[in-house]
Design brief:
Elements (H helix, E strand, L loop, with lengths): L1 E5 L4 H6 L1 H10 L4 E6 L4 H4 L7 E4 L5 H17 L4 E4 L4 H9 L4 E5 L10 E3 L10 H12 L20 H13 L7 E6 L11 H13 L4 E6 L5 H15 L6 E3 L5 H7 L3 E7 L2 H7 L5 E5 L4 H4 L9 E5 L19 H4 L3 H19 L1
Parallel strand pairs: 1-2, 1-4, 2-3, 4-5, 5-6, 7-8, 7-10, 8-9, 10-11, 11-12
Helix pairs in contact: 4-5, 7-10, 8-9, 8-14
Length: about 350
């Protein structure tokens, strides 16, 4: 049996599919399982032990995408998949799933696309306080009712496997930054995929400086996506200014790959960041996480892992405009993020660090 799983992007959403990958392997242990993904999120699944193949397709635009997808569609059909599961429901993923002409094609009942599938799972159009992993579990139940009686989704954590070469590369980076082997590394990821998920730079700078000066063994690494390089640099500069003599322990995390960031989590004492790909990559490890949620709900996208792993989710509370579709900020001031004070995040971070530091002392 040959099975295709389709989730082209985004990083966090691909992370959320990893419990499904494991469940499909458990249900079909002898199957040949292929995962279709774009380059930016490919590191999440490249070394997944439950997959046989990872098919990486370019993220092109315009006429080039049409030509690429037609060519890819013919290739998928020639591969003769028996089952194809669309884990996204977008126009492109739906068409690629249909193009396989697999006997069983599973997807969500999105208007205008249901005809592309042989089995559908209901997906309400409104934003619900239900986790994305559970939503995707609905696809498995649509595929085979036996999944309804399988282990509950929260017994299958998200995962991202790190290879030895990447682990060595991350270790070399820390050595080049003069980070001691016994350092308590705090990773602050200051960017997000869009402005609706970015906590204010001033708050991140205050957080970084307070954590760096709170304990002699702490080192703070500030990371950010390529599109937010300037913002990360401003946070770094201001945090160092506030930290004074402790500023050398606030480090620039520019240039870390996604895989290296995951390897770093094995050395880190804490991760703090907004609801973005790196937070979900961190969730695939056992590092304590403080997650910051603005327009999104923690109920939908908090780290999906064992409940005993320390995790704190912080938001601005109930707002009439929250959650939102992240296209227009109705009040115009991003109050769901600016309403999260730095002091609250500092307290949560200190609490998790204290637990970790007591266990290591």
């Amino acid at each position: 049996m040959k099975i295709l799983l389709v989730r082209l992007r985004l990083i966090g959403d691909v992370v959320f599919t990893t419990p499904v990958i494991r469940a499909v392997r458990r249900r079909f242990p002898a199957a040949e399982i292929t995962y279709l993904v774009e380059p930016s999120a490919a590191p999440v699944v490249e070394h997944n032990p439950h997959l046989d193949h990872v098919l990486i397709v370019p993220h092109t635009r315009g006429w080039q995408r049409i030509k690429d997808d037609v060519r890819l569609g013919f290739a998928l059909r020639a591969s003769r998949f028996d089952i194809a599961i669309d884990l996204h429901g977008g126009p492109r993923s739906a068409w690629l799933t249909w193009s396989t002409q697999a006997e069983v094609r599973v997807g969500y009942d999105v208007p205008g696309r249901t005809w592309m599938y042989t089995h559908v799972a209901h997906r309400p159009r409104e934003l619900r306080a239900r986790h994305s992993v559970e939503n995707q579990w609905d696809l498995l139940t649509a595929l085979d009712p036996a999944f309804a009686g399988s282990p509950a989704p929260d017994t299958d954590r998200v995962e991202m496997t790190v290879d030895d070469a990447t682990r060595a590369s991350a270790s070399h980076r820390l050595t080049s930054l003069d980070v001691p082997d016994d350092a308590r590394i705090v990773v602050l990821h200051v960017s997000a995929g869009n402005p609706f998920r970015r906590w204010p730079e001033a708050a991140f700078a205050e957080l970084a400086s307070r954590l760096a000066t709170g304990n002699e063994r702490r080192w703070v690494l500030i990371t950010g996506g390529p599109s937010d390089r300037e913002a990360a640099a401003r946070v770094l500069t201001e945090a160092r200014r506030q930290a004074g003599a402790k500023s050398p322990r606030i480090l620039d995390g520019e240039g870390w790959s996604l895989a290296e960031l995951r390897a770093l989590m094995e050395r880190a004492a804490l991760f703090v960041g907004g609801d973005s790909g790196p937070l979900h990559v961190a969730a695939t490890s056992d590092v304590p996480v403080v997650g910051l949620y603005g327009p999104t709900l923690a109920e939908r996208s908090a780290p999906w892992r064992r409940r005993e792993v320390p995790t704190v989710s912080i938001d601005a509370g109930t707002l009439p405009c929250r959650p939102c579709d992240q296209r227009v900020c109705a009040p115009g001031d991003f109050r769901c993020l600016t309403g999260i004070p730095a002091a609250r995040v500092i307290d949560a971070a200190e609490e998790l660090l204290a637990v970790a530091e007591r266990s290591l002392s």
